[in-house]
Amino acid sequence: MSTPNRVYIARLAGVAVFDPNGDQVGRIRDAVARMRPTQRPPEVVGLVAEMPMRRRIFLSINRITSIDADAVVLGSGTLNLRRFEKRPNELLVLQELLDRRVQLDTGQAGSVVDVAMECSRGGEWALTRVAVREQTSRLARRGHLHQVEWDRVRGLGTLGENRGTANLLAVLEDMRPADLANALQDLPDARRNEVAAALDDERLADVLGELPEHDQVEILAALDRERAADVLEEMDPDDAADLLNELPPPEQDVLLDLMEPDEATPVRQLLRYASGTAGSVMTSEPVILPPDATVAEALARIREPQLSPAVAAQVFVTRAPLTTPTGRYLGMVHFQALLREPPADLLGGVVVNDIDPLRPTTPLPEITRRMATYDLVAMPVVDRTMRLVGAVTVDDVLDHSLPRDWRDRDAMSAAPATDEPPQDGGNG
Asked: Roughly what angle, to the nearest 10 degrees, separates helices 225-234 and 261-271?
């Protein structure tokens, strides 16, 4: 194996995995170690890689030909694409050891920030060294970092919940919200709730939108109500309404009352619409400008980084007021049309209104048919007086057209991922 003799596992998180042909097959998310009945350090039996569609698979350590900070390379052979499942005597290093409160043999208390695996002359990989940060008073910046042998650390062999979250969050911080949501589903419920609560409000709001409904509800319930209301305020109104719809009406009312009125109002409006209609799936905050705004102003608005690609793909033009429900809806302008027009031109001169807008009661199958017919990524939703009340985007349609449990890892694992035969040996 062409690789350093010692590898710190936290540094492998997110590293790309390549097959012998140089094609990327996924990214490393953890390492799997097997506990031993003796005092010998745990044996590393493989790595966990995340593939497209959020499926996590086991890579036997014997299949890996190279490990470094930039890539993990596999040897030849058939890849086992069955979903990884941890066995009773196995340990997920990053998930279970990072932030573990331990004690050095000197008596100094600390927490685990990384774990190193080493390859022996016989080719066996084992967890041999632990990076431990000393616990200090709050006034001190950071405690001293010790890198010590496995057997010099007490508390690694127990599965207590005496852990923090800082180092695990550091490993997860660069993940996209959907990938972080996927990682949270692999954690035990208590640990998942603990890590979720440690995220800031905006980050947690993004992650909640990528989780199955039952996980959203459990995480929200684990927060105090004031914090839950703050997180709901950071969510897109349609996502917040979907989440609140999973709660009993009395709990909905409590959380809505705790939210800022201007944040709660659009959510309350969305909750009034029947499930499976344009009103129930639309966003109430599309990009809206008046007809006397310039093309340059419209381009500046759609460049705002917090906008999703589907929302930023077009500008809706209305009379004042410009918050939903707006004044009279006049039409929309796609961003490609904006790029072709002089920056000083007014939107009123380039607006398009030859496609009938949706009504809040339009059913989802009709929305899907019309968006496919006209190759649109978003459609306006207007009330009986032609006021814009929101817009349905293609991601809204996909979210509500897929099976209800499509985000659920357990449900996904029930279906086979491939017809390929599994490799010999390894986990799974």
From this structure: 80
Q: What is the pLDDT of residues 28-81, one digit of tens each?
A: 999 999 988 777 889 999 999 988 766 789 999 988 999 988 899 998 877 888
Return the pLDDT at 3: 58
Residue limits of CATH 2.30.30.240 in the chain: 6-91
> What residues does CATH 3.10.580.10 cover in the chain?
288-401
Q: How far apart (Å, rounded) are the C-alpha atoms in residues 278 and 372?
A: 15
Q: Strand runs (DSSP E) across 222-298, as ranges?
A: 288-289
Q: Report the C-alpha dihedral over residues 32, 34, 35, 41, rounded to 10 degrees.
A: -80
Confirm if 44 and 118 have CB atoms less than 8 A apart.
no
Q: Cα torsion at 228, 215, 368, 310 (round to 10°)?
A: 50
Amino acid identity for residue 418 in this structure: T
- Read off φ and ψ for residue 17, nearest 5 degrees: -110, 130
Superfamily of the domain at 175-272? MgtE N-terminal domain-like (1.25.60.10)
* Cα(136)–Cα(123) distance, integer angstroms: 39
- What's the pTM? 0.64
Q: Is the peptide bond before 42 cis (omega within 30 degrees of 0)?
A: no
> pLDDT digits over 285-313, tens only?
999 999 999 999 999 999 998 898 999 99
Q: Does domain 6-91 have CATH number 2.30.30.240?
A: yes
Query: pLDDT class for 404, splitting at 50, 70, 90?
Result: low
Q: β-strands 288-289, 153-154: how paired?
A: unpaired
Q: What is the pLDDT of residues 334-351, one digit of tens each?
A: 999 999 999 999 999 999
Amino acid symbol at 404:
R
Strands 16-18 and 71-74: parallel
Region 288-401: CATH code? 3.10.580.10
